[in-house]
Amino acid sequence: MYLNILDNKFALITSTAIIIIPFYIYKTYRTLKNEYQEKLLFYNRHNCVVMYNGTQALKQARGRGVKIRLLVNYEHCANKCQEIKSLIKEGIEVQTYISNKPGMSSIMHYKYMVKDYTKCGGFVFTGSLNLSETGFLNNYEDIVFTSNFYTAQAFHENFEECWNYIVMDNKTLMNRTVLLDINFA
What we know:
Elements (H helix, E strand, L loop, with lengths): L1 H45 L8 H9 L5 E5 L7 H9 L3 E5 L14 E7 L2 E7 L5 H5 L5 E4 L2 H21 L3 H9 L4
């Protein structure tokens, strides 16, 4: 009788193991596969290089599914209209800051990029560097790259605030007229 109980326990444990082990292996396989696919997707979408003449790089990143939004100064984009139009045509969102003061007495002079921002963090590039050939190649500049959550959050919130302000401002009659004249609207 005692041997019969041991045989039943052994059979029960063996049967349970036969059911649970393949399930555990399958579950682990699925988890690892999903993690790999998420990392691959992240890499494919976010592996990009920042460069001065970045029109082509921005288009390539957009082609990989990267969401790109640009804020540009109207006063600075006069000789870049064709490039900006080509970015818009590729699905890149562009908002143009139009100062209500004559000339360049008021420009949006932010110099930063927020990359891969989520509720868990992101990356920020900021500093004195103008994103120009002179800025990259000739000047002594200070730049900071950081993944600090609070810094990324603050820059993201600032970008959203600026973006929303410019979107609303560009709905005014004066700004709509200016944007229509350069075929940005």
